[in-house]
Specification:
Elements lengths: L9 E5 L8 E5 L19 H12 L8 H11 L3 H12 L5 H6 L6 E2 L2 E2 L5 H18 L5 H8 L15 H11 L6 E3 L2 E3 L11 H9 L12 H7 L3 E3 L7 E4 L4 E2 L2 E2 L6 E9 L4 E5 L14 E3 L6 E4 L2
Antiparallel strand pairs: 1-2, 3-4, 5-6, 7-14, 8-11, 8-14, 9-10, 11-12, 12-13
Helix pairs in contact: 2-3, 2-5, 3-7, 6-7
Length: 310
């Protein structure tokens, strides 16, 4: 992440998704940038930066007093609060567009070619959160690049001026302005804590938080291979850095045995092909380090089940 002192503001055209009328807003041309690979389900953000940006950019529109409500809606949806602010700011021209003023629609949501009207601003914010939950959490479009391909696809029929080309870089800039943080760090290990329904401290919680792409409701550690395969992930016995590794009920994990009922799941930090070993990080109530990382190096690598990221 690169940061620098902001330059004097300039006016630049932004792209509203779903072919809303072109909007303009003023922003500084250089900021700390968020990369398109950062996980949008992480809940970590700088509250002071968020508040300062909200006051600065939303103060002249109808969303001026909806800061707290928007944060709560984002958390309920399982996405970063900076994301909902970035999208509503872009799509509503900072709360001044006709859609948000006349239809309580802050994010350009449409049915066919018609802007959807909501009974209140809160209803429109909730609808934005629901849409982002569906795209980011349910469908796994958890980076700006992935989300942009669905929210503002390049070459869309309703984007004759190709403004969608600007959507990803603009949202990246706004995420940084609103204090987006990609996750917590433990040493060199980054966790993605958003939308994690597993109990904190369990191996399943760690596996989802460490990977950033595993789904909720995959069951116990021993179940993750079959659950992931059913969800369309590649599952085999070939180790890969960045994969998840599932251990069957009662299977040996080095010098200790996985739970005889629940099994175990962990994250593959590295693979040493020369030595035939993997190094994993893991959580679990039996470990001293809570919630992790509890690093361990294992041999017999072909005996385990690996879930590969898409």
């Amino acid at each position: 992440m690169v940061s620098s002192a902001p330059l004097p503001p300039v006016e630049e055209e932004l792209n509203p998704a779903f072919a809303l009328p072109n909007v303009k807003y003023t922003y500084a041309t250089t900021y700390g940038l968020v990369t398109s690979g950062d996980d949008l389900t992480g809940q970590d953000f700088d509250a002071n930066k968020f508040h300062a940006a909200w006051v600065k950019y939303f103060s002249n529109g109808v969303l001026a007093d909806k800061e707290s409500y928007s944060i709560d809606a984002a958390k309920k949806a399982g996405v970063n609060p900076a994301l909902i602010a970035a999208i509503m700011g872009t799509e509503s021209s900072w709360g001044t567009s006709a859609a948000v003023r006349g239809a309580n629609n802050p994010s350009g949501q449409m049915s066919g070619g018609t802007i959807i009207a909501y009974p209140s601003l809160e209803g429109g914010i909730d609808a934005t959160g629901n849409t982002l939950h569906n795209l980011v959490v349910t469908r796994g479009l958890n980076t700006v690049q992935k989300l942009g391909a669905a929210y503002a696809p390049i070459g869309a029929i309703n984007d004759p001026n190709n403004l969608n080309l600007n959507w990803v870089p603009n949202v990246n800039k706004l995420l940084a302005i609103f204090g987006f943080k990609s996750g917590d760090s433990i040493g060199n290990i980054t966790l993605h804590n958003g939308g994690n329904s597993y109990p904190v401290g369990q191996c399943t919680w760690w596996a989802k938080a460490r990977s950033g792409w595993a789904a909720n409701n995959w069951g116990n550690g021993a179940d993750w291979g079959s659950s992931a395969a059913a969800a369309g992930f590649s599952v085999d016995h070939t180790p890969q850095q960045g994969a998840l590794v599932s251990f069957a009920a009662g299977q040996m994990v080095g010098n200790w045995q996985a739970d005889p009922v629940y099994g175990h799941v962990a994250y593959v930090e590295s693979v040493d092909s020369d030595k035939g070993t993997i190094t994993i990080s893991q959580g679990g109530t039996g470990f001293k380090q809570q919630p992790g990382p509890n690093l361990q190096t294992l041999g017999n690598v072909g005996a385990y089940t690996y879930i590969h990221p898409r």
